[in-house]
């Protein structure tokens, strides 16, 4: 597993260990049950590997980082290059794993309040994230001979929600201070999935040989950014009701200051507004 120490990877590792799975994490840091990228390239997959899961990637929800060309390149390389490397070692392995699971995102779909998307919907390049997702999925392609043995499962995930990381962790402080609010007018839909559901989805894909292809990893309930902001505000009001008499979600994040603060280009803002 790559990305095994991140938000999703940590939850997945714990869930797999509870089910009795042995896990080897591909990491830049040495440690027990870990494998470096250089060792992977030299020695190939560990003996007895039955599934390969790629969760590697620079966190795009890190609001402490500015969207410089260098950061965008890191977001791209950390996903594409790792996926290409894993696909290569799978193709070269004498004994193939049964499944190769990799992530993508709902950024593949152009935001449209009147249009519904499914896995078979046509995806077109319209901004940085749509191009990223397209190249990300393309990088997971295996040789035809390998496909007869190893399934490829691609999960186009929505915003992953959970207390310990991801978007929720980034929003703790502004919402606690009463400064959280919808982005723009808040009318944009925000596809989401809870970390436990995503973890269970990945395990289901590992264990079921009929699962193959592209899947949208999102909750069935529709939610706008404004609705999400209201729910978060009520949650913090409940927590701090003995400290603060009244705290409401009255602020809206205006797009121009966000662009100036994080150097997010106009096309990048379209994706944030679609979250």
Automatic annotation (TrEMBL):
Residues 2-211 form the NAD-dependent epimerase/dehydratase domain. InterPro entries: Epimerase_deHydtase, NAD(P)-bd_dom_sf, SDR39U1. PANTHER family: EPIMERASE FAMILY PROTEIN SDR39U1, SUGAR NUCLEOTIDE EPIMERASE RELATED. This is NAD-dependent epimerase/dehydratase domain-containing protein.
């Amino acid at each position: 597993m790559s990305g095994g120490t991140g938000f999703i990877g940590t939850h997945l590792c714990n869930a797999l260990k509870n089910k009795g799975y042995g896990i080897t994490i591909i990491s830049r840091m040495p440690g027990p049950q870990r494998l470096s990228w250089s060792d992977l390239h030299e020695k190939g997959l560990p003996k007895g590997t039955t599934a390969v899961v790629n969760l590697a990637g620079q966190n795009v929800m890190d609001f402490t980082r500015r969207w410089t060309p260098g950061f965008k390149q890191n977001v791209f390389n950390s996903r594409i290059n790792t996926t290409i490397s894993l696909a290569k070692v799978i193709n070269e392995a004498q004994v193939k794993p049964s499944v190769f699971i990799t992530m993508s995102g709902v950024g593949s779909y152009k935001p449209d309040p009147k249009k519904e998307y499914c896995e078979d919907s046509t995806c077109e390049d319209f901004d940085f994230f749509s191009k990223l997702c397209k190249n990300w999925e393309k990088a997971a392609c295996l040789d035809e001979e390998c496909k007869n043995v190893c399934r490829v499962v691609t999960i186009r995930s929505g915003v992953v929600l959970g207390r310990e990381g991801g978007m929720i962790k980034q929003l703790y402080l502004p919402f606690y201070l009463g400064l959280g609010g919808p982005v723009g007018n808040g009318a944009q839909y925000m596809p989401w999935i809870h970390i436990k559901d995503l973890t269970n989805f990945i395990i289901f894909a590992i264990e079921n040989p009929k699962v193959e292809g592209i899947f949208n990893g999102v909750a069935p309930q529709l939610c706008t950014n404004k609705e999400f902001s209201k729910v978060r505000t009520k949650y913090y009001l409940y927590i701090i009701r003995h400290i603060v008499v009244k705290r409401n979600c009255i602020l809206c994040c205006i797009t121009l200051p966000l662009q100036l603060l994080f150097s997010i280009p106009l096309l990048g803002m379209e994706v944030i507004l679609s979250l």
